[in-house]
Amino acid sequence: MGTVDAVRCLLCEPALLDTYGEELPLIDHLLQTAELLWEDGGDAELAVAGLLHDVGLARRSSELHHARDGAQLALSLGFSTRVAELIALHVTAKRYLVRTDERYWGVLSRESRATLVEQGGPLPITEVEAFESSGHFDDAIRLRLADDMAKDPLRGARRVEHLYPIVDRALASSTARQDDQRR
Ligand SMILES: [Fe+2]
């Protein structure tokens, strides 16, 4: 099965129709996140990281581990380590923003506030600098802010088919990146 087909299968799983405590089905949240990133000029890998960032929840991962499990899933589908890292960091970015931006609490949904403790609470001050200087910091924050905005039950979402060309493009750049690393 090709990767786009595998992503299609993944996004059709009935578990993605659950809301996981939010006000819209998880699939709509994922589509909105990807759309927001893409419409904001994000590249295909960033948009796909947005598309897949919470799929770990649908695999019954805990709040604590769903980011890491989603990252593993993205890698197994053939996406780059960048895509995986961005997925893995979306909870760290939330914990960072809670620590560093007092206005951010007002941005979080009620469910996101409720899950913060299970996710480890605000990022320890001793870890702030390391995160800021990590290579994926800017994109991880971008993904996180799109994640928080992508919870509008009235916005709806385009059909998932609309995103397949972006998935294809992300896969092509992931493959090119892996080829570069092998050289
Ligand atoms: Fe999310």
Distance between the termini: 27 Å
Cα shape? globular
Distinct ligands, ions and cofactors found in the model: fe (ii) ion
Give helix % range. Answer: 55-70%
Radius of gyration: 15 Å
Overall tally of structural domains: 1
Order of helices and strands: HHHHHHHHHHH
Low-confidence stretches: none
Q: What's the total helix number? A: 11
Oligomer: single chain
Number of strands: 0
CATH topology: Hypothetical protein af1432
Structural account:
By secondary structure, this protein is mainly α. It has one domain (3-177): Hypothetical protein af1432, CATH 1.10.3210. Helix content is 61%, strand content 0%. Helix 2 packs across helix 10, helix 3 (44-52) crosses helix 6 (81-88) and helix 3 (44-52) crosses helix 10. The structure holds fe (ii) ion (FE2). It comes from Ferrimicrobium acidiphilum. This is HD domain-containing protein. InterPro entries: HD_domain, HDIG_dom, OP_Dioxygenase.
Short description:
The chain is mostly helical. Helix content is 61%, strand content 0%.
List keywords for this structure.
Hypothetical protein af1432, mainly alpha, binds fe (ii) ion
SSE topology sketch:
Elements: H1 3-11, H2 26-39, H3 44-52, H4 55-58, H5 66-76, H6 81-88, H7 90-100, H8 110-115, H9 125-132, H10 137-149, H11 164-182
The structure holds fe (ii) ion (FE2).
